[in-house]
Amino acid sequence: MAMNTGGRLVAGSHNRNEFVLINADEIGRIKAVHELSGQICQICGDEVEIINEEPFVACNECAFPVCRTCYEYERKEGSQACPQCKTRYKRIKGFARVEGDEDEDGIDDLENEFDYVKSEPLGFTQNGGAVGSVYGGLSGSATTSGHDSSQGIDIPLLTYGEEYAEIAHNQSAIIVPLFASNVNGVHSNPPGTAAPLHPRPMAPEKDLAVYGYGSVAWKDRMEEWRRRQNEKLQVVQHQGANGDDFDGGNFGADLPMMDEGRQPLSRKLPIASSRINPYRMVIILRLAVLGLFFHYRILHPVPGAYGLWMTSVICEIWFATSWILDQFPKWYPIERETYLDRLSLRYEKEGKPSELADVDVFVSTVDPMKEPPLITANTVLSILASDYPVDKVSCYMSDDGAAMLTFEALSETSEFARKWVPFSKKFNIEPRAPEWYFCQKIDYLKNKVHPSFVRERRAMKREYEEFKVRINRLVAMAEKVPEEGWTMQDGTPWPGNNVQDHPGMIQVFLGHEGVCDIEGNELPRLVYVSREKRPGFEHHKKAGAMNSLIRVSAVLSNAPYLLNVDCDHYINNSKALREAMCFLMDPTSGKKVCYVQFPQRFDGIDHHDRYSNRNVVFFDINMKGLDGLQGPIYVGTGCVFRRQALYGFDAPTKKKAPSKTCNCWPKWCCLCCGARKSKKGKAKRDKKSKHKEASKQVHALETIEEEINISQDKLEKKFGQSPVFVASTLGMPNSISSTSLLKEAIHVISCGYEDKTEWGKEVGWIYGSVTEDILTGFKMHCHGWRSVYCMPKRPAFKGSAPINLSDRLHQVLRWALGSVEIFLSKHCPIWYGYGGGLKWLERFSYINSVVYPWTSIPLLVYCTLPAICLLTGKFIVPEISNYAGIIFIALFITIAVTGILEMQWGGVGIDDWWRNEQFWVIGGVSSHFFALFQGLLKVLAGVSTNFTVTSKGGDEDGGFAELYLFKWTSLLIPPTTLLIINIVGVVVGVADAVNNGYDSWGPLFGRLFFAIWVIMHLYPFLKGLMGKQEGVPTVIIIWSILLSSILTLVWVRINPFVSRDGPVLEICGLNCDD
Fold it and tell me: Catalytic site residue 568?
């Protein structure tokens, strides 16, 4: 049901009982909520119910407002007359008869006696009380229930074609209402029927009332089911080799599979064995070489440098363990292929409404100064213009900063969307984000034959330039905040002037009545949401905002699938939603899929990708490997969810296939094997089998009725005190008025709604980490769900990445901090989730995702060892023998071959692979190291860490000017220090070799190789320090010189060039006197 607010902002607080509609137009006044409400009952003061989109009318003479409850009470216990006109209430269909109804003129319409059940919410009344599906049940005698049965309606048997010996053929099932008690049994055919009823064998031990069997609603559902089955079984006629048409009966059960629309919507594409088998062999070989390597290292300590040797061995053991955790989840890499044409054949039949599932799209933003409104507007426009039925897409924008700039920019975006959406769909352009479409350096006339395209494109570009001017004007105005705060157009103060203390706000910009595009077509729904914030409440940052969107969308649209994107990630492929539906709506393999994750692709990154922003190795290698296990991890954006999986429900269990019998073994062998089993176990299996046989459920309603039987109290403890939202979690439609819908929408985004519920613990996005994405996906996999990795040829989403060194390090710092928080929480994959549905190799991947920040300590120490070795003249290994040389060479070869084979089957270039290796060292010794200490302080000492929003936006100055912009941060100190001490170590080592002669050059090469390895990995960081236009900041130079001087003085104290006793004089062996 659409929420019609008349284009006004809804603001309110459930806890404070505040609820108003604010006009943001030229009228300039505030309307109370009752102006949008339905009629109010004049007896009890409750709201009059809505039935079939019309208010309930008790009296047809004067239409005096009376609710259904008061109407029924007046008829049963009261005067049976209208309080206003004193006319006797007539019986309305669906209500029980009372004394005096028989005297009314006219004949009851028995055929449509209970039709109003279709408009009632199935299972929950307006006040949240649990009811059954009883409105369709017939009451009265058995003769009444048989008026339709005698027509010979062919309803499929409800026992899967099995008959029960306990039921005679002249017996039929009793028809009872749901609230009757102890109604199991059968009765003979009612007397006086014109034709005998068709026997419907059913198990007598079943409670027929649970299923509403025999009711009008049941018959309607069965007819609808039969209609859908007939449509599904329609197959195209195929011709044989002789040109004759085949008779449909000759195809048998294989006929449906011959129809293209009945084929699977996707398929797996395993990596070719010629590529994956050598890769696996090299991994095994590398494990063997690692064993020999550690055997040698442990058994051959360095006598003069025992501390260096022990430190290096510990670091190498940790690196090997980390490699195993990262390597083995890539054992079964796969790729996938989708069939969009089959999706259309199955769910979009010509001449019929589309049967594709509804999708709610979530866009989150916090600070419009760091997340430019123009970038956010392009993301919203790409969503509204996606290639998907407009009535099935709803876009929800979460403004967690309650910024009026975001609100005004979204208002401008909704106006521009009325022009942009029809243009993009008319000419089928890609991408459908105008900023990136118009900046493409391609021939836009290519393959465009429409004569009006050039003219309309130029006009649309002018419209977009004007739209950009309006957005930039809003941004310029927002830079200077008035002292009294922002004021809306009608003079009303902006409710979000206090970011940490404001009511919840909702406005529907598009999707309500009367708002169409310039061609008169319907537009997708666009909703602005800003959840309530009050001091003293924990808001849980992005995870809390996403959970608020889950609840609001459930109240307003309740789509079964959700797409979440960051504000800077626009839809680059207009068919991205269809790609996801190929997995989620596949009737054979889609039921256990909790989400479909798309890879992240980025615009505006320098050609060399200096700081590995594209992260190609992770998205093209690691994620493919996880897809072959239980699915990829959730990375925070570009992911389509199944709503039921976010509600914390377990994945549907797959029924075990019946055991197969084998005739290849002699009977005496089977008898011997069977004789070992006890009779007690056999009796238990027989009893269990009979119990399963007796407890078969009607397949058409089994899931619905099981969910309805869940207690109301349990649901409210899990999902919160909102009957409308609780009903939506069970898939039940709502038919309440706009007023109640508004109240519930404000209620579910109130700051105290999640108190004493399972939100953030078992339901929705999981709290406890700034990287809520990893934790949320992990919980789903623990519930037995699997995920899917979808990589269409045209990237589904593209976003903006921080190409500046400091911003990039802060982004990595936030990711690492979230992993540390998960590691120190109860949800750590090392000890959480056993006994669930998480596979072992998938667990390895999650363990690696939370353990990797701890690698920063051995990595930092290991990168310091080359400088220490050069400054002290010692080394971490003794003199290398031939055996040790072979092991070292074999280890380096296997490391290189593993990387080459990964690049081969993953489709990754050597530049991307090397940049990933470099930034692993840069981030490890800086961001990961700081994140480790921040996480320990936060968890153990309670010192909270501020959430840093990464700046987003394109490179407006051109030439990647932001790439060379230097910003001071303490994260730059450790890698800078490592660079300087290793360079100093190289200089000192070479100088020492020059002074000591030829014999010292041999041992020097090992130390030099070690130091140069560190310098090469830190080279992109060194280029970032140098910049392009300015020099290194003074503070960096001071810190680096200070630390380097301290380490140099320590080295001088330990091992100077000159002995403390003065120069060592030796007697020359040559006789110079001769």
Answer: no
